[in-house]
Structure formats: C-alpha cells, structure tokens
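Input for the complex:
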Amino acid sequence: MPIPAEAFFIDRASTVPLQVQLRRQIIAGVLEGRFRPGERMPSARHMAGVLAVARVTVTQAYAELVAADYLTSRDRAGHFVSDRIEPLPPAPAPAAGGGFDWDAVLDTRLSRAERKDRVPDWRRYRYPFVYGQADPALVDHAAWRDCARRALGRREFVALTGDLYDSDDPELVDYILRHILPRRGIRAEADQVLLTLGAQNGLWLAAEVMLGGRTSLAAFEDPGYPGLRTILAQTGARLSAVAVDEAGLDPEAIPQGTSAVFTTASHHSPTGVAMSPARRARLLERAGAEGFAVIEDDYEFEMSFAGAPSPALKAMDAGGAVIHVGSFSKSVFPGLRLGYLVADRRVIHEARALRALTLRHPPGMLQRTLAHFLALGHYDTQMNRMRRVYAERRAEMARALVANGLVAGTPSARGGSSFWLATPGGIAADRLAAELRGRDVLIEPGAPFFTDPSRGAGFYRLAYSSIPAERIAEGIARIAAAARR
Amino acid sequence: MPIPAEAFFIDRASTVPLQVQLRRQIIAGVLEGRFRPGERMPSARHMAGVLAVARVTVTQAYAELVAADYLTSRDRAGHFVSDRIEPLPPAPAPAAGGGFDWDAVLDTRLSRAERKDRVPDWRRYRYPFVYGQADPALVDHAAWRDCARRALGRREFVALTGDLYDSDDPELVDYILRHILPRRGIRAEADQVLLTLGAQNGLWLAAEVMLGGRTSLAAFEDPGYPGLRTILAQTGARLSAVAVDEAGLDPEAIPQGTSAVFTTASHHSPTGVAMSPARRARLLERAGAEGFAVIEDDYEFEMSFAGAPSPALKAMDAGGAVIHVGSFSKSVFPGLRLGYLVADRRVIHEARALRALTLRHPPGMLQRTLAHFLALGHYDTQMNRMRRVYAERRAEMARALVANGLVAGTPSARGGSSFWLATPGGIAADRLAAELRGRDVLIEPGAPFFTDPSRGAGFYRLAYSSIPAERIAEGIARIAAAARR
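Predicted:
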C-alpha cells in the first residue's frame, strides 16, 4: 500500500529546516508502525509538489533516511520503508493522553446500559443456541450477489450514488406495498411507508416521534426486548411495564394516561406467545378511545410456519393508531440493516424528518439490491427454505427437550426461531450459561428480558436459527447434563 | 411477479363461507390494483396448504372468478389476473382514513424545519450548480463494482452478514487509522474511531453525546450548515450563533458557559474560509481552560487542491477536547452514507452505545466494500482525478465570474467544490434562483445558512462538483443575464 504524500505536513513558521521536519515525520511514522516495512514512499517529485518544497529537500531527506536504514532505495522503483527497523511498542496516542476532563461532562447512562451478555465470537462454538444470527447455509449468497451486481450496473449506479435527501428507493417501497404488507393483511400507500436501518432503527424512530421531548407515559411488555427498554429509557418518558401471559399483553393492565404502547403482538419476544384476537380488539378499542399509539414490532413474522399465519395488528387498525415496525434482518440476513415503518402519513412524515436529521437515508445501493432480491423471487425462495429448515429444527429441538426432561416455559405455537424455557428446579440461568460456555454450548439467560432481572433468573432462551439440526440433540444433552450438576 | 399465498387470510370465526372470503379478497386485490394484470395466482394446492382449507375451496373460488372475468386460466400454467378489469381509482387506504387524532399528539417541529429549497430532480437541469451531489463521470464505477464483488465473496459474506452488535469492520477502521487520518495530521487508535452513516450521522451522534438530556449551551457558526442547526435545535440545548469573518469563527465571540462549539475550521460552510492558526490555537486553549468540547466538521478536506493542505484542528488537539467528524460522501459518492468520528475513547464509547441504540451498525457489506476501495488505491486515484478536475472547473468558474462581473462574497483559498457569492446590487437570491430554474440553471440561495435568513438574502452558492467544465461559461452567463433583469 503506497504511503500518500498527504500524510506529511510542513510548518513554515517553524525554525526547524524543512528537510529535518520531513525526516522526523518519516521516522516517527516508521517507529510508530503507521508506515510498515515494504510500503512505498511517494516519489520525490510528487512529494515536493504536494508540500510545495524544492525537490532536493525531499531527495536529501530520503538519502539521509536510506543511510540511517529507515528506508531502502530500489533503482527506478523508488523508496520503501525498511524491514530492518523494529517499531516502538504502541504509545498512547496524543488524543487519549489529553487533559480534557471528559468524565465531568459525559453522560454515561447509555454505555452503562450496554448488554454484557453477548458473545461476538459465537461462530467458534459448536452448539450456538444464539438468537438473531444468520445461518450462512440458509442465505442464498449467490442470489444476493447477483442482485448486487444488477444494482451496481452503470445506469442504476448513477441514480443510487446521489444524495437522496430524505427519500427512499421507489422500487423497494413499491415491492413492500404490493408483496410484503399484503402478507400481513396491511394495505398502505407509498407515503405511509418509511425505510429504516433495520427494526432497531424503526423502534427508535417510532419512540422518538411519539415520546421525544414531551412528558409522556410509555407502556411496554415485561418480559420484553431489552433493546426497546434502553430506547424508551433515553426518551425521558415515564415507563410502565405491563405483564404478559399466555394470551399476550393484557390491554386492561395498561395504565390510564398512556401515550404509547409497544407490543410484539404476533409473536411475543422472548416467549413466543401470540396476543389473542379478543385482546387485540380491546387494545385497539382503548387506543382509539384514549388517544394512545400502538407500536407493533412485527419481528420474525415470516417464520410463522406452524399453523396458518394471522394478520398483523396493523391489519385490524381501522382507526389508524398503529405504527407497524418491520424488518428484513431475520428473513434476508441480520447484517443487512434494512426495515420499514408503516403508519399514518403524518407519523411517517415526522419520522422521515427525524431520519433525515440523524442519518439522511439508508444507503441507496443496498435498497436497490434488496428490491431486486425481492422482485426476482429470491426472498420467497429463501423464506420457504428457512421455514422448512426451522420446522425440522424445531421438531428436533422439541424431541430432544422432552427426551432430556427440559420443559418449555410457555407454549409458542406459531413457530419462530427459539424456545423460551424455565431451568430445571429454577436454577440460575446465568450460572448455567457460564458453565455451558466451557462445554462449547451457548444459551441465552433470561434475566435481561425482565425489568426486575431476578424474576428472569430461572429462564433461558434457546434459538435454533444458527445451529444445524444434527447438533441439536448433543447440544440439548449437554444443557441437561450441566443443569443436573 | 407471482402473487404469494401468504397475501390471503381466512377468518374462521366468520359466518361468511371460506370460498366467498377468498373470492372477495382476490376481487379486492384486483380492483385496488395490488394484483396487476398478468400476475400469477398461487396454485390451488399451494394456496389450500397455506390457508389450511380444502383444495376444492380454492379451485371453486378460482372457477367463479374466471367466469366473472377477474382471472384467466391457462392450461397447465395456472391462473392469472385478467387484463380486462379496470382497477378502481386509488381509494385512501384504511390506515390513512382512520379516526386517530395524530394532530393532537404529534410534535411537528422537525418536519416544519425541513428544507424546501432542494431540487431532487437536479439531473434534469443543464446547468446544475448544486452542492454536494456526485458527478458520475468522476466516480470510478468499475472499481467500486470490483470492490463490491470482493466483499460479496463467500468467505467475507459469511463474516459480514451477521449482526455485528456494536462493532465495526476492523479492516476499514485500520485503513482509516493508517491512511486517512495521517493526511489530516491525526494519530489515533482503534477505540478512538467510530464508523457512522455519513457526516450527518456523525454530527448528530456528537451533538447528542455532548448536549442530549442536559442544560447545555451550544455555539455554532453563523452562517453555517443548516442541517447542523436542525440537529442542535432538537437537542433542547440553548444555542449561541457565532459570527464568521475572513479568518473563520472568532474564539473570543464564544460565550462563557459554552458546552460545545461546532466548527468547520478547515473549510467553512458555506463561505470556504479557513480558520487562522492563531484562532485555532486560541479556540483549543479556551476549550481546555473552560472545559467545552470542539466538534470539528472536516467535510471536504480531500478537495483542498489549491495550496498545501493544513492539518485538522484535531491534529493540534493535545488536550483531547476535539471530536473530529469525517465523511466519505464527497470523495467516494454521496449516497454511500459512511463516515467516522475520531475522539477521546470515552466519547467514542458513548457514541457507540448511542449508535447501537438507534441503528446498531452501518451495513457490514458496505464497510468492507469501502475498505477494499481504499486499500486497493482506488480512493487515491479517484481523489487525484477529482482534485484535478475541480481545479480546472474552479479556474473556469473564476474566469467566467470575472468576465460576467459577478464577484465572490469571500475568498476561499483552499479549493473545495463551490464559490460563495454576493448577488449584484444585493438583489434577492431566492428570486434569482426561481428565475434561473426556468432557464435550466440551478443555484443555491444563501438564506438557509443564516439564523436570520434576511441577512443571507443577498448571497448564493455556486458548486461545480456536478457541472462539466464546458457548460460553466454559459451557465454563469445566464446567471449574470438574469441578475441584470
């Protein structure tokens, strides 16, 4: 990798000769390991031009450094960083050693709320029952690459490399309107849809639009998605945790004066239960009568393989109180970072302005690649494959759980990608998880899903989206063995 | 595009026969234009399986609809939406017609602050002096496509399709540390860098970390980037506009008690002036003594082709008070949406938690594509081409401006991609812009850059990043002619 001439600066106000300034900068770069052995220096002519110094200044500096073994010279090929210099051990960079008192000014609420239970190197475990990661074997890599190639064609490239200001790729929006939303029973028009950087971004936008900068009361499911609780906490709204039972969130438990209710009605996170039709109707009735919004996180709807699918809450929403949050992370792949909001056009208008303020728009090229992936039918094919494989794995999981005497905490009738379980005898799931990591098994303790972590101590989640079917029996056997100890 | 079986729902609690329910849904889809002429219906067997109804229910519904001309049947190929049905005029979707009183609950501050002066279809104008858009002729499309192909290889794809939680692509971070930041005189380590969704996202993250949820005082340049003012306004901080003259922002004009100062020190937006070395030193001195942060928006540094480059403010920042905001939008292409923050590791830690909360991480595949684009030298080649072409266009602009008697409002010595100009005789720039749109010319009126728009009424910006050199003379002549009228 050639070293750019722009990496050097000359201070003309200094009394240090230009040639010496240049030499010092090259030596510092080599010793600090920023310039690595074998990397090529800029030509003397180019360097002199960029720094506006005489060429002889550069050639002299180079000659001195060759003599001192920092550089080597190869005839006609130029000057290169020598491989005979030992770089210094990395020193703290000046930016870090500074005296500015950040501790006095920084609000560390967010970083303190970070989840410590994630295992970024989960791929190294043989039995990874981790939630929300992709099984590369189920992703149609070749099809995605083909779609990316189409989106990178010259004509589309020109349209997609510009600053889109606050707009979205109309082809992707059109496909979502005509082929994704109808599967959830939702009818909408283009100005009722906003593309997001995934479901997390969608939930954040919805929370900010509904709760930001006002005295509000937000109701959410307990247990529930920990990422949502962090979002809600930073809005400054008052929070009300609402219990979830076998029929989902109970609308009667929502307090008076609520501004917004957040629910995973079709497939509760983490237990997998679905809200009953009667409760759905009652929730929407109260929303209309009392003027609160309902934010529906419709994650994982595509994985509803067990039994006929039920429409989204948004499909029943004649009053227009529901903000629907969708995502392609589970169905295409998690690193994609694309999802959408569907809501009243006034809500979308505000969310669009907030999105423009915070990040402008999702990258155009990704939007178009996804549009091709959907329109060419790859999405449907991949979804069908995932559903089939997940159904097999789920059956394998159920067999192994029964065989090993591990019981499901709550039924989760409609599929999904995980089981929610109570530990045998209520033993602590975090200790079980720690023990199992030493035995090549990853499980997810339940505590982070509860506002009161102690209530979740005896629960854990086992996902099967990333573990091949043939390893499930052995993985579950190891969990049962560890639980017995 | 085949219609998915999942687009249909059966209500088993209803007294309406299943076959009639299905027929009604198909008719509604056809009439509303969601199912389009020629689209294929799911096979009866598949549909029956998905809906868990008898196959004969589906075949009967299809037969009725063929008789009624909604569908056509082709032997062995299946059933298709008929092209003999006129779709209804689009009705308001139920989600929009609802009775929920959004006006009562929505805070519309953000959407009301939207800029109305943008021209999304700027490509259709022959003389588009628009700022911040890419000239496709200068972007190395083939090289970008090649890099995307590499990032889409199987091995990298597996690593990049996962949920990265809050981390970044280490290859891209390494390249930024070793080859981008040294050009700005900045030394940093990996935990002092955070990737962002472009400069807008970087500014927003920095503003939230410094000002969010506290009683703060933010100082910013006036005139200055309108997108920043909107960001600052929504933090709830008190705001102090600081005037900019030929030597940039005056540090003495920053009020006591300031929490954060936002500056485009190296290349002021929109005038293009650079902050003098003495003022830079004084700004950092006050920051250290009074404990305020300095957020440096280092946009467009790569376009500093006129004269030797000067290091960034961050390079002088021994105390660690500077948060440096960088972007690849100007140098790679604007729709890319990738940039970075460089700051004290405690700041980066908080900004990373906020980024994870709002969107998790920039898409992995884009990060890796950019890493290849940089590491293979395409970035340097493209930058050098842009610098050369911009220098030519700038010279052509300068000639045409002089020849037409249009004077620059302030000097902008270090290049960039635009001129900042005063209108002849102080005539209103927005009227001039409106007049010129009818003559195929786009210019950018100055008012949005000022806290008091009336102070900017006699200024405008002319960018040359999107207009070929050979059209500049005619474009400028048209501006002069319109100004004379």
